[in-house]
Write a structure and sequence with these properties.
With 75 residues, this protein is of the alpha+beta class. It has three helices and two strands, in the order H-H-E-E-H. A two-stranded antiparallel ribbon has the order 1-2.
Length: 75
């Protein structure tokens, strides 16, 4: 919780919205490499990115579809 709060304080905007030219507050700290794939990076800030809920939900949906046999899409 402390790592999440500190990261969002330092990175208050969704990085994906910024790439789209919008300024949206980030509410979620996303792990770039999933915890399941690299549990040792769970608290590594270099593995974090700030996202809004919409972008985090989209990424989660893509990854869950991939886990069910769908095709993995680029991140």
């Amino acid at each position: 919780r402390r790592a999440r709060a500190a990261y969002l304080a330092a990175n208050p905007l969704c990085v994906m919205c910024q790439e789209e030219g919008r300024l949206t507050p980030a509410t979620v700290v996303d792990h770039i490499v999933a915890i399941a794939d690299a549990p040792e990076r769970r608290l590594d800030p270099s593995n974090f990115r700030a996202l809004c809920k919409r972008h985090h939900d989209q990424r989660t949906a893509r990854e869950q579809a991939w886990g069910r046999g769908g095709q993995r899409s680029a991140r």
